Amino acid sequence: MIGRGRRFVHCTAGVAVVIAGGVCAAAAQRSQIWIWCANRDNAFPPDTAINACTALIESGRETPKNLAAAYNNRCLALNNKKAHERALSDCDQAIRLDPAYESAFVNRGATHYNMKNFDRAIADYSEALRLDPNDAIAFNDRGNVWRGKGDEDRAVADYDAAIRLNPNYSYPYNGRANMWRAKGDMDRAIADYNQAIRLNPAYVTAIVNRGAAWRIKGDNDRAIADYDVAIRLNPGDAGAFNSRGNAYNDKQDYDHAIADFSAAIRLDPNATGAYRSRGYANFCQVKYGAAAADLARAVEREPDHAYAAIWLYLARARAGDHSAVAELETNAARLKPAEWPYPVAELYLGRRTAADTLAAPSKPGDRCEAEFYVGEWHLLKGDAAAARAALKRAADTCPATFIESLGAQAELRRLGR
């Protein structure tokens, strides 16, 4: 998590008093508006904070430090509304008014992070840490930016620093766990997720992430148990439903999987991943029409997603839809020819042989995928023996969480192995 920031309220006449998320008793007549502007623990909707801060900024009665606080607080509220350009302007103004305002650098760093301006975010968090080297939040949030940049080692170093400064701060444990998970060390990841959840039992993000680690380890029952808790804590979390659906998919429990993907879509009609996953599940159940409908929605929302385009072709082709090749031709034009799995699209468009397709990948995971897609190509050509051999290799070599593994197993069951 990033962008929580800190709200420092300056609200006395003549003397600047800094209280994190608090109220200045000396300004009793304005205390309520400062409460709204500070919005401690997000007690009010962002618009309430924005309106209160705006009233303070426009009152003409505040000292420069008070104004800096109001701009900083409004920056944070705008950031929470994803109005990042306006948030950035407000954080800039807070820093102009108070160049040593550490919290404003943190909030501006969060805004840059949300805008994917990673280098600028790093610069702001580094300045915040120069102003306050003991700021655990700034270390945690800078760790998140390093993670966004793909620098896992620097991310871990910042999470370590945050934990040393505040061992009871749950967020860096989750961040560090994400790094262990990215490095393939599920046991260390789960240990850190456990600590994050012990410190904050309602930390839904850490609970969902731990579920993902259990799923990678192949323990789908524990993954589902974590997703159950996350959904109980936040029944409106579309991502948790989608994640639980993927775990049910791994168990080949497609009815429960489809129910969860459908719930995710009801909660978030723009949940492209849920459409894609429901399409895969329908394909594995030989519901090619339903699969094609879902995958078409996924391609419409994310036209450069190669796997969605390829599976859409497979669903159409397996349903006997003669428009499948022309549609793939159109969709393939939006893909990156230099990247996997583009060679699969070329195979299905008749521009590459099966042998060339199998030789194209450089990564083990991509090679196992190639076996699946070549197996599907053989099925479309009516060569069941060649299809069975390729699909068996895919089932044997693909990680259990790969949809190609599930697809291969489903096809082999239909072929009688």
Describe this structure in words.
The protein has 417 residues and is mostly helical. Among the domains are: 1-117, Tetratricopeptide repeat domain (Serine Threonine Protein Phosphatase 5, Tetratricopeptide repeat); 336-417. The chain is built from 23 helices and two strands. The protein has a two-stranded antiparallel ribbon with strand order 1-2. Helix 8 (152-165) runs antiparallel to helix 9 and helix 18 (324-332) packs antiparallel against helix 19 (342-348). The longest helix is centred in the last third of the chain and has 18 residues, at 364-381. The radius of gyration is 26 Å and the shape is elongated.
Work out the radius of gyration: 26 Å
The largest sheet, given as strand count, sense and whether it forms a barrel, is: 2 strands, antiparallel
Instruction: Categorize the overall geometry.
Output: elongated
The CATH architecture designation of the domain at 1-117 is: Alpha Horseshoe
Largest sheet, order of strands side by side? 1-2
Strand content: under 5%
Total E-strand runs? 2
Q: Treating each run of at least 4 consecutive H or I residues as one helix, how many helices?
A: 23
- CATH homologous superfamily title of the domain at 1-117: Tetratricopeptide repeat domain
**Average pLDDT number:** 93
SSE pattern:
EEHHHHHHHHHHHHHHHHHHHHHHH
| Terminal-residue CA separation | 46 Å
* CATH top-level class of the domain at 1-117: Mainly Alpha
Low-confidence stretches: 3-29
